[in-house]
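[SOLVED] Need 3D model of a two-part complex

Original post:
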Amino acid sequence: MSEEKTFVDDINRSVYDIRDEEKDAYRLEEGLTEEIVKKISEEKNDPEWMRDFRLECLKIYNSLEVPQWGPGIEGLDMDHISTYVRPNTKMKNTWDEVPEDIKNTFERLGIPEAERASLAGVGAQYDSELVYHNVMKEVEEQGVVYTDFESALKGEYADMVKEHFMKLLVPSDHKFNALHGTVWSGGSFVYVPKGVKVSIPLQSYFRLNAKGAGQFEHTLIIVDEGADLHFIEGCSAPKYNVANLHSGCVELFVGKNARLRYSTIENWSKNMYNLNSKRAIVEENGRMEWVSGSFGSHVSYLYPSTILKGDNSTMEYTGITFAGEGQNLDTGMKVIHAGKNTSSVVNTRSISKSGGISTTRTSVQVLPKAKGSKSVVSCESLMVDNISRSDTIPVMDIRCDDADVGHEASIGSIPDDAVFYLMSRGLSEADARALIVSGFADNVSRELPMEYAAEMNNLIRLEMKGTIG
Amino acid sequence: MSGNLIINSLVPPTWNRLKVNEYELPLPGTLQQDTAADAFKTAGAGTAEGSLHIQTGCGKELSDALKEKGIIPKQILIKGPELVTSKIDYSGDAADVICIKAEEGQTLNILTDITSSADKAAGVLQILIEAAKGSVVNLSQLVRAGRDFTFVNDIGVVLEDGAGFNLSQVFAEGGRIISGYMALLSGEGSSSNVHAGLVRKASQFIDMNYVMRHTAPSTRSETYVSGALMEGGSKTFRGTIDFVKGCAGAEGAENENMLLLDDTVINKTVPLILCDEENVAGSHGASIGRPAEDMLYYMMSRGITRERALKILEKASLDSAVSYISDEKAREYVSSAIEGI
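Solution:
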């Protein structure tokens, strides 16, 4: 059994653990100073307002404390993080033009194949910059804008970007929003015009290859009135023996009668501090759907939040977190019901094994004017062994009598009788337990496109191998 | 000790902006003592000096502050299962630390009825209970203090093997109520059952912090809160089921049912489940909102006005807790006391 575990882990982990030599890359010195921030701004040829914005964010960053309520991040020392590493290539729009080693990495991760099979557009970021970006002609002809963030900042949509950039995730919210505002680099800008329905998903994939570096991509998506989009985000990194940092920001604007689905399968390496922020604001009759799978990282703070601003707007959040050895994953979601007749449905699952710590942290706020609002939250946690930990920390703040809020949470272990039943049907104990855990995660896998659901189930199978014996 | 105390702390804390991580209590500079101890004496219980070192729901800062203010713990001696009704009326700022020991196999029935003849004052009642093997302690509490009165109700219980603690609380009146409860389920097969009913209106508030800490195998806890909020009333309920390593086979359940009767209210619910042990079962359920229209419609179709129907539902929030009082005399006493509400 132990041989099988080693064999399976080695082969499959290597997909994510490919390390490219950092040759010819431009890397700024470690730490966070005004000089470094000015250099990043210069490197990126920022407009003046952005340069000023970065410097203002630095002041905010220095004035804020590290959060005291979550997992410890003592192992993260900003003095030893390089905030900008640029690969030695410009962004390309055909894979053949991407440098061989980088292309091979994305090939092994299956990105070009996924693009051919099931995506309308792909952006691939490598360290601090995008190396590949392409979008289907048919989608472009619909008027959909999908581009790297830097191009958007200076091109035709510059005013739109300026109007929306860090307006939802304001730098003063917390220290890591301020950090992001200071050193952000890369990411995607998407604009879906009124009434346009993008039938095939777009995807951005973020790969952090550099040792001891940070990745701070910014994703801004505006789905205009009556439009429809499914956006997929993937991320991974090879494992190093020093801390890496991911502090991205995702800002989503969902217009009147529009719908946006944002799916993420996160599989950062287990030396990663994943301090990521995501927020959506939804207008009248709009709909926001989150599908979130958190598998990697050493420490995660991740709580996609939604402001249901418009009357009759809705939100659905489906998430799974899998915390294994050496991981402390603090994940969850937040929703604010501000408009009338708004509704939210939340379904989270968490799994802890091999000493992993999983915390599900949620908040539901119903404001006084949100008459007729409804919220249903379900949090289920599974403890796979007795050396792990699982906490559920929900808050409901209800300030409106005409609201209907339900919450249920449960925690438990894998039932012996279910394992016994599957073993009596010929499965090994390990396979039986893996199957039960996969079934537990079914809430997320059934919401993902088939290829991604298969990847997620594979990740669960990998994590479960070797949990017994 | 004139600074504010940080009590009812959420462990572990969550987002600060939600303002649920703790309650800040301005404790009066001077506090008279023995208001509660004398009430127990009047009820026929014996008293003696003696203290217990038990963690409470309000937390260490309150316990330390009481010690610093010279409040001497009093041990209340109760012989048997007969109901001891302690009528505690606060005529000024006062504090008591009451210690109760239930001997092996003993059953105790205790009722505390809290009122206040002084309005702009504060009363602190800390009750520390040690329940020996196989004992059962039934504590019922009725709070009907004045609308400008601040009442701090702080309970700590330690339960040995097979011991049971049943707490029924009826928070009917009282301007500001801060209620803490901690059950340390350290004996195998021990249990904690809490049923709290509350009505908050006319800008009254209640801040609750209830912790059920399971440290021994096969322990059970059940916590049920029902209530009604209206006219600017507000409530924060923190309920924590804490499964500590070694409590295999433990089960904990929390349930909350809150009626919001107008849009001036604030209801905060924070139901934590902390789990450091594999073979346990924890669950939480909450239902928060206005009364179901079909229920109101049914009542109105039977000739009851909407106003009266809401009043009935408000009262039902308290009755739910009353119905769990196991001692018949105590149940009748509380039921009759809240009749007019």
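Edit: Residues 2-17 of chain A form the longest helix (16 residues).
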